[in-house]
From TrEMBL:
This is DUF7344 domain-containing protein. InterPro entries: DUF7344, WH-like_DNA-bd_sf. Residues 16-93 form the DUF7344 domain.
């Protein structure tokens, strides 16, 4: 693979990382926290944001659905794009260094 092809693949994976609103919300929440977050806590934060209601008013099955989508779909895509680091043993996730740079340019991407 040429350098140009590698650069294009990297750019494509970054844009795929930003393609879904849940991944953008997750990146924002991770940026707000200086330390890694447990995936369950991230799911709670996204449930509040997506439902625009306090966590106590979000049904437990909705929070679980969000957790499962993060675990099986969104975190792996963000990790593949080198935007987050996931720790399986601690079930925690943190921003990767590249994500901080990209977040500075997020204004150029469509944000919900």
């Amino acid at each position: 693979m040429s350098n140009l092809q590698q650069a294009q693949a990297s750019i494509n994976s970054v844009f795929e990382g930003f393609a879904h609103h849940r991944r953008r919300y997750a990146l924002r929440e991770l940026r707000r926290h200086a330390n890694p977050m447990e995936l369950a806590d991230l799911a709670d934060e996204l449930a509040v944001r997506e439902n625009e209601t306090p966590l106590t008013d979000v049904p437990a099955d909705e929070v679980k659905r969000i957790y499962m989508s993060l675990y099986h779909t969104h975190i792996p895509k963000l990790e593949a794009a080198d935007l987050v680091r996931y720790n399986q043993e601690q079930d925690s996730v943190a921003l990767a260094e590249q994500a901080e740079y990209i977040e500075q340019h997020q204004e150029y991407l469509t944000i919900d």
